[in-house]
What does this fold into?
Amino acid sequence: MSITLLIRDARWRKVRGLAARMKHAVSEAFVRGGAGADAEVTILLTTDRHVQALNRNFRGKNTPTNVLSFPAGSSLYLGDIAIAYGVAAKEAKAEGKNLADHAVHLAVHGVLHLMGFDHVTARQARIMEPLETAILGTLAIPDPYGRKTA
It folds into this structure.
């Protein structure tokens, strides 16, 4: 497994332990999501402005968003993920979450999208969301959907 992490917004460097935790969670997502042992992904930690440009150019939406996934259409190179610092930080604060935990969740969410998982329908969400929660649980990150565990 290969996970390339590119940091293009220096504010991400101040988030303690982010790189190691993100790589651990993404590796776990590869395994639990059924990616091959040689799977690769690139994660870009960047600015809202950069994500907004990507969103505008590739999705026709001229607004920043928290995470974007760009599938490569290959079983080896899964694709690219971009995460916007400002949007992620605002969401984490508004939801009372640790920024590192939220960013790790966004990376896992993006990787699962690259592997074909989705949450558009309730049926899809019943598969994808518990998978995300289980992966995050390996790092003691609480369920991002707020469900209580038994």
Q: What stands out?
A: The mean pLDDT is 93.
